[in-house]
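Q: Here's a chain of 413 amino acids. Please give me its 3D structure as tokens.
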Amino acid sequence: MNENPPSIVIGAGIVGLCTALYLQETGRAVTLIDRFPPGEGTSFGNAGIISTGSVHPEAMPGIWKEIPHMLLQRLAPISVRPAYMPRLLPWFLRFLASSSTRRADASSVAIHALASRALEYLQPLVNKAGAQDLLRQSGVIYVHETPAQFAKAKLDCAYYERRGVDYELLDSAALAQQEPALRKGLAGGVLIRSAAQTLSPLALSQKLFALFIEQGGEFRQEEVAGFITEGGRVRAVRSVSELPCAEVFVTAGAYSGALSKQLGSAVPLDTERGYHLHCAAPGVELVRPLLFGGRAFAATSMQDGLRLAGTVEFAGLKAPPLYRRAQVLGEQARGLFPGLNTAQGKPWMGYRPSMPDTVPVISASPHFANAFFGFGHGHLGLTQGAVTGALLALLADAKPSPIDLAQYRIDRF
């Protein structure tokens, strides 16, 4: 074997790219491996939001009251394909357990610790990659259509208060003034001014990848099959051939569960399949990204059109996409944005790697001294990707972390 093998990062989405770049900052030689071209997996299709004010776990207290009636409706904002229900059940029971008041608050702390530092760690990479034109900090609005939704949102702002997030409540008139493209008469919204967006998730990933290559990184478009271990260390990664490694970082999104299991760490990771409809000539432009919690989707103006991204479908990694779900996003959006043109909208589906407590894994392996994990970011991969990469680089060098990493341990369940 090579006397000086590289550090290997598995997964070239936004989390893997940021991890590879922060490892390069430490002087390491890094090889990046992915079955897809960089940024063309799940990172390609997100809503482009850097959600610095995120504090709410998906498993909020009382959510059990809202879910049962919609789970088996194929086109509902949250759905489970009936054939997948038996496999999902263990994850779902952990999800419900995570919705207790105590555990939801602990998840909120862990989520915000990463989200609040998102730009602190992403901006330096963006600057170095010359991608400043792809990042815009204009805030985000959580839109609530009915008085009942808005009243509940006001109560949930208690999480913002506890975490110290700067927010502003917008009544119906203020919401219409902030976002003229929205139809009038909606109940209100919650504005988070610190949030940002990228004008193209793919272009951002490609810029970061170009920086990685410019700095001497190597990329292999291959599927990782497993590992060769010896004496409590990972000696090589098995793909098309055996690739010796100094250390390995599993940042493969939804595919990380199987790889982690091979390294002795089984995790309750599942996939919230998300869809988007991308409209190249929408006829409307938004000031900032908008999120519609009651409909489980976001709308974001990007450099090449308007993206409607969201919904949650549990069906695993093998079931074919149900693109009708993406078309439903267009139908709903036309009722929210007068004049919106979705006629040429292109549908897409991707796999959000989700943990039942909405808290990602950022962890050293409890079994192998040179293996590390960074996955399970759910809806917040773009938001938490750079800070995850920076924390993994600190872990690998056994340096102190600015965030308590115990809450992200791979063996916390």
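Q: Can you summarize the key feature?
A: Residues 53 and 164 are 9 Å apart (CA to CA).
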